[in-house]
Automatic annotation (TrEMBL):
This is Thioredoxin domain containing 11. It comes from the Eukaryota. Residues 779-797 have a biased composition (Basic and acidic residues). The lineage of its organism: Eukaryota, Metazoa, Chordata, Craniata, Vertebrata. Pfam families: Thioredoxin (PF00085), TXNDC11_2nd (PF26234). Residues 455-483 have a biased composition (Low complexity). Residues 455-489, 778-797 are annotated as: Disordered. Residues 49-171 form the Thioredoxin domain.
Amino acid sequence: MLRRVRQSLRQVLFLMARRPDLVCGAIVLSVLLILAVKFTCSRAKNVVAAARPPVRFFSAETPVVDLYLGQLDQVERLRGVAEVSLIFFYAPWCAHSMAARQEVQQVAKKLAKQVQFVAVNCWWSQGKCRKQNRLFQYPVIHLFYRRFGPIEYKGPFIAPYVESFVRKVITPLIYLPSRATLQDFLANHEPGVVGFFQFNSSPQPPGYITYLSSALQALKRDFRGVVRFGVVTNRQVAEAISVKEDETVYLHRRFNSSLIFPRQERNFTSEGICSWVFEHCETVLQWLQPPGTKSRLLEQELTKGPALLLFLSHNPLGSKPNPILQQVRHIAVRYHSCDNNYHSSLDRSGIPLSHSVCCQSVVLPGSSSSVCELCLSLSRPSSTSSSIPCSFPSVAQGGAPLQSYLKHCCLHRPPAPVSVHTATSVACCDFLSSYSPFGQYSACCRKLESQLNKSSSQEGSDSQSVPLAPPSSSVPLSSVPSQEGGSITGLRCQTNKTLRFYVLDVALNWPLALRLGAPRNGSASYHANWSFATIVNLKDEVHYVHHHNPATTLTESLEVFIRNFSAAYSPLQRHLVGEEDSAAGEGAAPPPARPLITELTTSSFLPSVMDLQKDVLLFYYTQWCGFCSALNHIIIQLARLLQGNSTITVARVNVARNDLPWEFMVDHVPSVLLFPRYRKHLSVKFPDDVPITLPNLLRFVLQHSSSARDAPGSAKPPSEAEGPGPNALLRAEFLALQGEVHALHRARERLSQQLAQLWRDNRRLTFDTRTLEAQNAELQRERQSLEEQHREKSRQLGEAVRRLQELADTSENLLNENMLLRVLLRALKDRTEVKEDEGSEVTAVVTATTCTLSCSMHLSATLQA
């Protein structure tokens, strides 16, 4: 093998030595190849520009440590220093990260002394955060409580929500030092978990850290922190909920009996406690937070059954619970309570309570006839309710809010007019800011009778200084037990249409509320007491909107709304969602007197279609239907033909954006229906097996419209009608249109013949073109063959010329040698003449030389020949 290689190298070197031009060509080609590769690689590097070095994402003034180089190792060091840390992972190009940056800065300025805020650029390719973490979206917020974490925040990136979540992580446990705080905790947090741990024996009782971790685990599951954890350290306070043993976890429930964590059956771990709480907790009012992107969260909840969606203004940082939310929670509790004798409830410690209403009348300042009645719903133990008289809080005891409310309710609300024989006229409204499950204020404005005006005016002068205090001579107008509205209590177990109660923040879900029927002017006017309620039944594809009656309280109105929905034959009207009329918008151009095609919406559908004076031809379409778009020109032509007839209206409705009553819906689009005048109940649908063309539509209209008939009750026969009637006009138009159609048919036939001839000519030309292309291809192949033969002959001739040139060079050399030999021969002959006596050796040399010379002369002669 080596020998063959060596021989090949020797041959190559020998050829290179003989042909130096080949060596130069090979060297030049090698250099060009190297330069091409070098320039190509350098150009590829220049196409991708180097990434710019990252810069600070947060400003230097904010208390946020910005690790814009992705230094993940610095995060661990900063976490070890602070008790609570917030890690904000961002991408500098992400718009969501930029929007959340302002919100995080606001939270950081408030909680900088309690929380360590760290921002990490997780997009920088050379940073450790990008190499070690795989984040699929930005931004991401992780919280760490000491060494516990990460607790990912999954809520909206709005400052109040983020701050509320961070505060719940800072204080995962609520300290309950007394029975009052324990009762408030169980009343305002549903569900509530209470842990009893005594700190007397040791600074940190065993199991306390596990209980603390379980509270943090609950925050990982629910960012809203609906399930709150409290801790009790006093045994007397723990006995209020029948807890006596140390290290006991108590789960408070309203409907079923409360539970204590079974330590014999489950492991006392944070995951075990958290799972046990979420498995057995009762939630009658659930918060919903659609993410605003493609998600099936709302669909998953609505498919479970009918749902009551309550949209209200929610402040996550509010110190007091929303009064409307408290009322709805109270309604939901009574709705889910299947005990029909639910006229008494239990207090926070399990003691039965009875409810009563105490009312006192207060003479308004500056008025001698207006009296405001203040009613307070009290909750007392059933054993002592009859003996304790009605009592009202004074100004020192917290009656100042009542005083301001009375001024707003009674002074700024004109009382209803009354007649002489009417004793009183009452207009009431709730004092919502003081609502709780155990008491409710309501104020009523009314006038006294004429004979009582003087006495009330005299007493009013004494009560102007303290309006809330009862007059010296006044007595409570009523002190009767309240009626608890038993019709709503336990309704869940009395009907098959069980409701689920959901709450949504209107500020985050305003488009959804608007789609469900919320008033359009509510986007800029909702306040703390603004609310919108609707019942959605996804199975029946209906929803109902709650309309609050100002003459009743919100609680009563919602109860009536729920009872009407649960009735066997519900009196509620289905809410239809449709597009707004174009004329309703500000600055819109006024509509024409009689449009060519009337565009109907949900609100204008019934008035237009059910107009008894007109035949209505209705075209059902959607914006995504391609067949509907193809028929638009036919509908426009039909509308132009019928434009002169005032008794026929051509209309259309977009059924994808406008809900219609069930009796007016169609099973497919496009569809055409005719509603004849005076006979709306005899509407006719255009046949599905007939193509929708202009002649067919005209025939359909003429056949089923009321224009060919007399109106009901008309005594004039058609012969006595003044002038040509609408039927004659339509007939004339139809005949003219029919002649045009025949002319178009004849023109179409002639055009078809011409197109057929052109098609035949085109086909013949196509065949000829294919034949010429085949011949051209054959000629091209012959041309290539001849070119190859020409190249081969040229090469052979070149080789023969080269050989002849070599022979010519060789013959020239031989001729030169022959000339030299002749000169030598003459010299030898001269010497032989002088020295004739030389020996035989010289003669032999001369003979050999002569032979050689003769041979060369012969060869040269041969070459010349």
